[in-house]
Write a structure and sequence with these properties.
Length: 370
């Protein structure tokens, strides 16, 4: 089952796995604001689960620009990204009553319907995030937008001194803009919209960053200095995030700006996570590589799994056992619940993969017999 994963770089798959768990944690974690009261211990550990999406956007740059044929790339993305997301969108609407513990599975199968009219316009706009338990599918929209920019980005993310200078220019402009926006949130409120012109979106800038990191991975591999700096940066920047968010709560208790991935802090944290894993020795692990290869399907499924566990009260076992234990209990709850959702989603992803392989073998057999 795992033999075809022998040659993959397990460091990359570890990054995918950790990023996926972080994204899940972003959705299942405890909220630092309850009834207008700020829980500082929850806020302190909040940053651990903020930046999984930024990591994924950076990872896009690892291998995206190995593609040479734009049409083949579009076909691949349509088949492996958009179609699975569309299938999830349809199924989630069909089973939303059962997932939300509103009706039984039998009632769901008999009475559920899909709003095909609205779905058509979602498909045309490449935005499937308006469906039930599909809010996370905004990522698919952003992903496809980056793919549509591939012909331009391919020129940018190429070898050569001029291209390297262009990459640094794009990254620097984007990062400076993020810094200015972050500073303005709490220090220059009277000045509207401090920013600099940017060449590409934040998600695209992160993709270019990923390309630069991957091209320079040989300098990072087995580098203990990079490893230590990555850990220190992750901790230090998240502490800064904590104090900035506290300051922002004094201005607007509903503004969670600094907990978002689309910030200079999110950028640095994502960069730190990736550099840490790339600084490890390159190894291959079949199981890790298999799990890493399933992370997109896990990402698709996790919101439905989380919604089911939440609506059926399954999370209460962990909540009652851990949350009243202080910051350690709160951290354990966030991690444990994230892992539970991850593992259940992995089981479903594995089952779907097994069905896909069985159907593939059957089709190949029919073709051969024919």
């Amino acid at each position: 089952m795992f033999s075809k994963y022998d040659k993959q770089d397990s460091r990359v798959q570890w990054i995918r796995i950790i990023a996926c768990i972080i994204v899940i944690g972003c959705h299942v974690r405890l909220h630092p604001i309850t009834g207008g009261h700020i829980d500082k211990s929850i806020l302190l550990i909040h940053g651990i689960f903020d930046d999984g999406v930024a990591v994924f956007f950076m990872m896009m740059g690892f291998f995206l620009f190995n593609n040479e044929n734009f049409l083949k790339l579009l076909k691949k993305v349509f088949k492996t990204i958009f179609i699975p997301a569309l299938v999830l969108r349809i199924i989630s609407e069909f089973f939303q009553g059962y997932i939300g513990n509103q009706i039984t599975l039998q009632e769901c199968l008999v009475n559920s319907k899909v709003d095909w009219y609205n779905l058509f316009f979602e498909i045309v706009s490449f935005d499937l995030s308006t469906g039930p338990y599909c809010a996370h599918l905004w990522y698919v929209n952003y992903y496809i937008l980056i793919i549509l920019m591939f012909p331009m980005l391919k020129c940018l993310c190429s070898k050569g001194e001029f291209a390297k200078k262009a990459q640094i220019w794009v990254i620097n402009l984007g990062f400076i803009n993020l810094v200015l926006q972050d500073i303005q949130k709490v220090f220059f409120l009277e000045i509207p919209n401090i920013n600099v012109p940017t060449v590409v979106s934040v998600s695209t800038m992160m993709c270019v960053t990923g390309y630069v990191l991957w091209e320079n991975r040989a300098k990072i591999e087995n580098n203990r200095v990079v490893r230590v700096i990555s850990v220190l940066s992750f901790v230090f920047v998240n502490i800064i995030r904590y104090f900035l968010q506290l300051k922002l709560f004094e201005i607007n208790i509903n503004d969670m700006h600094y907990t978002g991935w689309c910030t200079s802090i999110g950028y640095i944290v994502a960069l730190s996570l990736i550099c840490f894993f790339l600084s490890l020795e390159k190894k291959t692990n079949r199981v890790v590589n298999y799990i890493g290869s399933r992370t997109f399907v896990i990402y698709l499924l996790h919101m439905s799994v989380y919604a089911y566990l939440g609506s059926h009260g399954q999370y209460l076992y962990l909540y009652n056992a851990l949350v009243d234990k202080g910051i350690v209990g709160e951290l354990l709850y966030n991690i444990s619940f994230s892992l539970v959702v991850f593992v259940i989603s992995l089981v479903f992803a594995t089952m779907l993969n097994m069905v896909k392989e069985l159907l593939s073998k059957k089709n190949r057999g029919e073709l051969y017999n024919g």
